[in-house]
Design a protein that fits this description.
mainly alpha; 27 helices; 72% helix; 1% strand; elongated; EXOC6_Sec15_N
Length: 804
């Protein structure tokens, strides 16, 4: 038995076989080796048949079999001996097995007799335990049913009360705790079906509530935007009132009034969306309708249902569609009437979105809100560009600009960037001012056309305050007695009101537009209004509508008052722009109405000269060859002086001293030119010393008139009036001089005759005749000695002719 398990040894051909000389012997050895090694005999068989010697192969196989028969016989003998030994061992064990079997039988009988009562007790125990387990299972099933019924009852109660979240919680508890444990397949199927129906019903109900909220929130957004912008407007008005008080304090300080009253100002600037409880999403400050509860409940229910992302997308798409519809501008309603609703709707939309972004638990992200805002800004800018390009009224632009700036202030508080909107407003700054200038041009033209250029009568103090004090036109701080006749006509306060309104509108447009220092812009357009519009309108009135001295005098008086008004305009623009007055006073420019003022004074002077020319025409009645010098002035000069005195008494009531001085100086200069013109012209062929002495009296009367104006002017100004008569005075002095040839002395001529013209001196001097130089007098005076003065005058004439 043991030898059967030994491994087969591999037979290797011996060296003797290799050394065999016979090929057959060698083939036999190789075949034996292959058989012993369990190798394939196919090659040997093929070779045998190929060589035609199969018998040799068969012989070799038989020889190998005979060689192995002896080995087989030896192995069989060895196995037989082992088998005999094993049988002997089994026989010796047989008696032991029989004794063991008897012992086992006795032990089994004893065990059965002892264990039978125990087995009966065990069977009873197992039966009792099975009953207990069944009872426990029944009690557990009853408890589960009770819990299940309780949850179902509570779910139904919450659904009937509209408390969907708690209903879904009950449904989730049923699904988690009882669905898999329910033994009844019928009940389990029913529960699965009802749970699905309850969830679908809940989703439909909250979606319907959310849809109603989407409809209502549009109206809420519009009202909310109007409320927020209204609060921004109120805050701006408080700031304006505070600035007005500051300007009044600065004005009092400038006037050295120290009895100023100071008070603290309490501000109640609450956020339009300040809430008492962030959880309910309701605003309690002025707008109770701002309720986000339906939105948050719908979002929470969808979160509970696991539909959070879908609801986020649904909410964003619907709000985006609402914003797109808010961008629509009705072509049936003027934008001026609808712009507040348009911008308030957008403002309210983003106020609500800001609140939802901060309190909605991730319902909408900051990036999504910013993308919506960029879209809204782009659309609002395009709408403003389009509407501004169509508007032709400055007030309309101002109204819309103010509302847009309030929109910017409102939304900037919530972190939105409004620079693009402010850039659009700044872009249309020039157009607004051009329209404003056009409107002011029409108003000024109408005001000037309605003025009769008569002094303005004020019967009450409020009229004085409204027309004089409000523009700082008063020459004195003392309130006059009423009725009060102002030195100006109604044009002045009317134009001042127009200019003041222009300044305020300009500052209002430039304020809150993103540019802090805008005084230079306001001043530039103010200078254009004064220098182009007002000056041009006044110049046109002066050139076309003045038909009398009184009107011309009134316009000249108005120009003097306008000069004070222009200082007020500069200060007013600076105050409204927040620029210190000292800077304005340092950079004060020349009077902007200089053209119209010069034209008004020139017109007044021209009309006065025309009046004077009527009186000066009486110079034709002067006797140029009198025998005796006149004791008083000639008739023309008396008439002129009477008229000038009457003029001064009237003009000093309304004309400033400087204007009156310039006008009188111009008129006196004209009178002097008329006197020289009469002596120089062809009307006077010749004159004698007595006539020149009369003219000297006339000039002295005029100089006396100039001296008499000293109470109205300073001494220097009175002397300037006399210098207006310098040409006639120097000509008279030259003709009455005993040494006229001194005119040829440059020093004397520069000191005493600097206004005289050579040609006029020659012509007028040639007309001077000696008193004895009469017709036919040469027969009586022949051989008489020549007058030295006459000789000096002839020398002067001859020398001047030589020079010419």
């Amino acid at each position: 038995m043991q030898s059967a398990t030994k491994p087969r040894r591999k037979v290797v051909p011996t060296a003797a076989a290799d050394r065999g000389d016979s090929a057959d012997k060698q083939d036999q050895v190789l075949l034996s080796s292959a058989i012993c090694n369990n190798e394939d005999l196919g090659p040997f068989i093929r070779r045998a048949f190929a060589s035609g010697k199969p018998d040799t192969l068969l012989h070799h196989l038989r020889h190998f079999a005979r060689a192995k028969e002896s080995e087989i016989e030896e192995v069989c003998k060895a196995h037989y001996q082992d088998f005999i030994l094993a049988v002997d061992d089994l026989r010796s064990l047989l008696s032991d097995v029989d004794s063991l079997k008897s012992a086992l039988s006795r032990s089994n009988s004893t065990l059965q007799s002892v264990a039978l009562p125990l087995l009966n007790s065990l069977d009873a125990y197992l039966e009792a335990r099975n009953v207990s387990v069944n009872i426990d299972l029944a009690l557990g099933s009853v408890g589960s049913c009770i819990g299940l019924m309780d949850l179902c009852s509570r779910a139904n109660l919450h659904l009937s009360d509209g408390n969907f979240y708690m209903a879904l919680k009950c449904v989730d508890a049923i699904e988690a705790q009882f669905l898999d444990k329910t033994p009844s397949s019928t009940i389990r199927n029913m529960l699965e079906k009802k749970i699905s129906e309850i969830r679908s019903y809940t989703e439909r109900k909250v979606s319907k509530e959310f849809g109603n909220w989407l409809v209502e929130i549009r109206v809420v957004c519009r009202n909310l935007g109007q409320l927020a912008i209204g609060q921004a407007s109120a805050a701006r008005q408080r700031d304006e009132d505070l600035r007005i008080k500051q300007r009044q304090a600065e004005e009092q300080s400038r006037l050295s009034l120290r009895d100023c009253v100071y008070a603290l100002q309490e501000e109640d600037d609450e956020d339009v969306l300040s809430v008492g409880s962030e959880s309910d999403g309701k605003s309690e400050n002025g707008f109770s309708g701002f309720d986000l509860t339906p939105l948050y409940r719908a979002y929470h229910i969808h979160q509970t249902l696991g539909l959070q992302d879908r609801f986020k997308q649904y909410y964003f798409e619907n709000r985006k569609l609402q914003l797109t519809s808010d961008f629509q501008v009705s072509s049936m309603t003027p934008f001026l009437e609808s712009h507040q609703t348009f911008f308030a709707q957008i403002a309210g939309f983003f106020i609500v979105e800001d609140r939802i972004m901060r309190t909605g638990g991730g319902l909408i992200s900051k990036m999504e809100v910013e993308n919506l805002w960029e879209t809204a800004v782009s659309k609002m800018c395009s709408v403003l560009e389009d509407q501004f390009s169509r508007m032709q009224t400055a007030n309309h632009l101002l109204l819309i600009k103010d509302y847009v700036s309030l929109l910017g202030v409102t939304l900037r508080r919530y972190g939105y960037l409004v620079d693009s909107l402010l850039d659009v407003l700044s872009k249309h700054r020039d157009k607004y001012h051009e329209l404003l200038l056009s409107d002011c041009r029409k108003q000024i033209t109408e005001a000037l056309a309605a003025d009769k250029f008569e002094q303005m009568l004020m019967k009450k103090e409020y009229e004085y305050s409204m027309n004089v004090l409000s523009f700082q036109l008063q020459a004195s701080d003392i309130i006059p007695a009423f009725p009060y006749v102002a030195p100006f006509s109604s044009t002045v306060p009317d134009c001042c009101r127009i200019v003041r309104s222009f300044i305020e509108d300009s500052v209002s447009f430039m304020s809150y537009g993103g540019q802090l220092d805008f005084y230079d812009v306001v001043k530039k357009y103010l200078d254009r209004l004064l220098g182009e519009v007002l000056d041009g309108a006044l110049l046109k009135i002066v050139n076309t509508s003045v038909h009398g001295v009184s009107q011309a005098m009134q316009i000249a008086a108005n120009m003097a008052v306008f000069e004070r008004a222009c200082d007020f305009f500069s200060r007013h623009a600076a105050q409204l722009s927040g620029v210190p007055l000292r800077m304005v006073e340092r950079s004060r420019r020349q009077f902007p109405l200089i053209k119209s003022r010069a034209a008004a004074e020139e017109m007044l002077s021209g009309l006065l000269k025309q009046k004077v020319d009527g009186f000066m025409s009486l110079i034709e009645n002067v006797n140029w060859m009198p025998d005796e010098p006149p004791q008083s002035g000639n008739e023309y000069v008396n008439e002129v002086i009477i008229y000038l005195e009457t003029l001064v008494s009237t003009a000093q009531q309304i004309l400033p001293a400087s204007v009156l001085k310039r006008v009188l100086q111009d008129v006196l200069s004209h009178i002097s030119e008329m006197i020289i013109g009469a002596l120089f012209g062809e009307l006077v062929k010749r004159f004698n010393v007595n006539a020149i002495t009369g003219i000297d009296v006339d000039v002295r009367l005029l100089e006396s008139f100039a001296d008499n104006q000293a109470p109205l002017f300073s001494e220097e100004e009175a002397n300037q009036l006399k210098t207006a008569l310098a040409e006639s005075r120097q000509m008279i002095n030259l003709l009455l001089s005993n040494h006229p040839e001194n005119f040829l002395n440059p020093v004397i001529r520069e000191r005493s005759y600097n206004t005289l013209d050579y040609k006029k001196v020659v012509t007028i001097s040639e007309k001077l005749r000696d008193p004895s130089d009469r017709y036919f007098s040469s027969f009586t005076t022949r051989g008489a000695k020549q007058n030295p003065k006459k000789k000096s005058l002839d020398t002067l004439i001859r020398r001047l002719k030589d020079v010419n």
